[in-house]
């Protein structure tokens, strides 16, 4: 594919990445003279209308979005039997690469990246598009600092039926509970996946792990995502709450779309400790000045501020007097007593209110902190005996049900705790009753017949087994490229008709037949084998009467056994016919001529009786002397008797 000109416009330069449905190459747009990324569907999927329509849907979904945080799509088309899509080229890394290098990110880094992702996702949701494959691999971090969301290969319009059908689409580690249980996705499913990504960015780990995809899917459907601060103490409480909000098992409890979550994240970024503006102070209280035992109420009474209703009434009556008025000592004393009494009563009420509020706060704190209303996280008691699990649950403040239930589990031994109800890691009221589910061991399942079907379909049918992520790819002419050749167990033997749930298995997948390069030139044969990732080794040329000089006589594996991508193929090269000059034997005796031709490695024929050999000389040979003839070919002698 390298060097190929796509649709007369895009010159392929190098390969960037390879996925399950397509390969992405770096190319040059010769018309606009710019670098682009061109995504080309795998050839073995081009005849599948489902994959082709999904590929076209990705182009249409992404093209409808014009947002700085979404990878731009420039073009989409078909070149011969090859479907392609042209996108913006972003040199850089993915969020997955960043997490592999740094483990976990700081809250500030997480907020920056999630804000950008939510911006692009909000644009998609506003356009009526559900991404359905949110994961770190699809978040691109460009070298110039831009952050973009890409890969809308599983996107669907929210107005359409967004059920996934028979297979679960998307990456299992980021599937929402409703996708696992009902196969239905909407904008809130993207929010759930983004919440799992936030947890992974803050802690460096995914919240749910397991040896088999079915285990992870079960946890998504039945367990609540724990707070990131339980894994990394010291994380801001606001980010804990945002992650728990986004990953609520009930879609109704999550943000309705990315724009709602983006608004909340922006508020959190502004109000997180260390970001608020300093200098906040308590309200200022102004204390009244003490009054003298006696005072004169004159015509300037309007300048005196009233401290109470009684004062206001007395001063107000004085305002209607036309001359100076002298208050008696008794009037002043009555005024002071009335004011003091009102202030005293006001103080009692204020003190009582403060005591009441303090009592309410203390009671509320006790109720929700250590009382009946407090909540606690169900500890992980899996893989423990029932007695040990009960002891740990009681110590954590729970009540353990007397009766247990049974459930199969692919990895936990029989009679040990496989799960709990409420689920492990969920936050419930302290004192709640927890029911233990004891493992009955792995369930024995019928193994589906997957030989001859595409690898993706085989993995879907084998979802309850631990199928290795990397298939054993081998060249064969028995099955088409991408189809399953065999299913092997952990020891490399063919899997029987039944196997335990979660059993380790490996798919052997066809890479198609080894290209037939016999008769091609060395360069042509090498290019054909290199195109399917096979190395070539050329031997010393040999003579061959049927194959032209420089052409390949045969190609065979260097080693016995299966041929896999990267294996070496030995090329036997022809030197053409082995030609030598015919010696001149005309005039020689018959026996001498025969010996001379045989010494030159020719076969000899003649129509002359052997008894007359001593009396005969060669008068003619065919082919004539000096002619180039193939070694071991036949030269005919004509002789006559000379007396």
From TrEMBL:
What GO annotations for molecular function exist for this entry? ATP binding; protein serine/threonine kinase activity
Q: Which residues form a coiled coil?
A: none
In this chain the PASTA domain maps to 373-440, 508-575, 576-643
Q: Which stretches make up the Protein kinase domain?
A: 10-268
**What are its GO biological-process terms?**
negative regulation of fatty acid biosynthetic process
E.C. no: 2.7.11.1
The record's listing under Gene3D superfamilies reads: 3.30.10.20, Phosphorylase Kinase, domain 1 (3.30.200.20), Transferase(Phosphotransferase) domain 1 (1.10.510.10)
Query: Is Electron transport tagged as a keyword?
Result: no
From the UniProt record, list the reaction(s) this protein catalyses: L-threonyl-[protein] + ATP = O-phospho-L-threonyl-[protein] + ADP + H(+); L-seryl-[protein] + ATP = O-phospho-L-seryl-[protein] + ADP + H(+)
User: Where exactly are the transmembrane stretches of this chain?
Assistant: 347-368
Keyword set for this entry? ATP-binding, Kinase, Membrane, Nucleotide-binding, Serine/threonine-protein kinase, Transferase, Transmembrane, Transmembrane helix
InterPro entries (alphabetical): Kinase-like_dom_sf, PASTA_dom, Prot_kinase_dom, Ser/Thr_kinase_AS
Q: Which Pfam families match?
A: PASTA, Pkinase
Q: What is this protein called?
A: non-specific serine/threonine protein kinase
Q: Which organism is it from?
A: Microterricola gilva
């Amino acid at each position: 594919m390298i060097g190929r000109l796509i649709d007369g416009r895009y010159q392929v330069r190098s390969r960037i990445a390879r996925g399950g449905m397509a390969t992405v190459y770096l190319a040059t747009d010769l018309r606009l003279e710019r670098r682009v990324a061109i995504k080309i569907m795998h050839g073995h999927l081009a005849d599948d209308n489902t994959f082709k329509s999904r590929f076209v849907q990705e182009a249409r979904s992404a093209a409808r979005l014009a947002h700085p945080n979404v990878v731009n799509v420039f073009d989409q088309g078909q070149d011969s039997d090859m479907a392609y899509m042209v996108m913006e080229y972003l040199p850089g890394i993915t969020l997955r690469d960043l997490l592999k290098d740094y483990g976990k990110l700081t809250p500030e880094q997480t907020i920056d990246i999630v804000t950008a992702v939510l911006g692009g996702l909000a644009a998609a949701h506003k356009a009526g598009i559900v991404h359905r494959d949110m994961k770190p691999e699809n978040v691109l971090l460009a070298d110039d600092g831009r952050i973009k969301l890409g890969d809308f290969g599983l996107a669907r319009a929210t107005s359409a039926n967004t059920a996934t059908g028979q297979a679960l689409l998307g990456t299992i580690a980021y599937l929402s509970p409703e996708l696992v249980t009902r196969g239905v996705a909407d904008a809130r499913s993207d929010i759930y996946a983004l919440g799992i990504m936030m947890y992974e960015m803050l802690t460096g780990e995914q919240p749910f792990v397991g040896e088999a995809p079915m285990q992870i899917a079960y946890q998504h459907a039945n367990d609540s995502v724990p707070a990131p601060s339980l894994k990394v103490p010291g994380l801001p409480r606001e980010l804990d709450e945002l992650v728990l909000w986004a990953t609520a098992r009930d879609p109704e409890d999550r943000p309705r779309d990315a724009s709602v979550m983006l608004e909340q994240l922006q508020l959190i970024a502004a109000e997180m400790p260390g970001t608020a503006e300093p200098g906040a102070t308590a309200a200022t209280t102004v204390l009244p000045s003490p009054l003298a035992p006696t005072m004169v109420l004159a015509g300037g009474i309007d300048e005196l501020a009233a401290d109470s209703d009684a004062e206001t009434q007395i001063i107000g009556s004085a305002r209607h007097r036309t001359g100076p008025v002298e208050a008696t000592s008794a009037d002043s004393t009555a005024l002071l007593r009335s004011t003091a009494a009102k202030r005293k009563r006001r103080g009692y009420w204020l003190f009582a209110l403060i005591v009441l509020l303090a009592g309410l706060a203390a009671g509320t704190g006790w109720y929700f902190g250590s009382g009946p209303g407090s909540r606690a996280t169900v500890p992980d008691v899996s893989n423990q005996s029932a007695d040990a699990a009960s002891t740990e649950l009681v110590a954590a403040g729970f009540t353990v049900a007397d009766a247990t239930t049974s459930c199969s589990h692919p990895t936990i031994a029989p009679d040990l705790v496989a799960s709990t109800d409420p689920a492990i890691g969920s936050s419930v009221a302290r004192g709640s009753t927890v029911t233990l589910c004891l493992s009955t061991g792995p369930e024995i399942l019928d193994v589906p017949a997957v030989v001859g079907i595409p690898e993706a379909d085989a993995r879907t049918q084998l979802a309850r087994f631990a199928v290795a992520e990397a298939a054993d790819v081998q060249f064969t002419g028995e099955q088409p490229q991408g189809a399953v050749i065999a299913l092997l167990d952990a020891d490399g033997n063919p899997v029987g008709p039944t196997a335990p749930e979660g059993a380790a298995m490996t798919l052997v997948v066809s890479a198609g037949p080894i290209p037939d390069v016999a008769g091609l030139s060395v360069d042509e044969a090498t290019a054909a084998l290199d195109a399917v990732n096979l190395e070539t080794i050329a031997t010393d040329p040999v003579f061959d009467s049927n194959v032209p000089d420089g052409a390949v006589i045969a190609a065979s594996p260097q080693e016995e056994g299966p041929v896999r991508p990267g294996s070496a193929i030995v090329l036997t090269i022809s030197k053409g016919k082995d030609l030598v000059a015919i010696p001149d034997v005309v005039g020689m005796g018959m026996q001498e001529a025969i010996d001379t031709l045989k010494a030159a490695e020719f076969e000899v024929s003649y129509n002359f009786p052997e008894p007359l050999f001593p009396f005969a000389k060669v008068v003619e040979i065919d082919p004539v002397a000096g002619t180039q003839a193939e070694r071991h070919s036949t030269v005919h002698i004509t002789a006559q008797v000379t007396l």
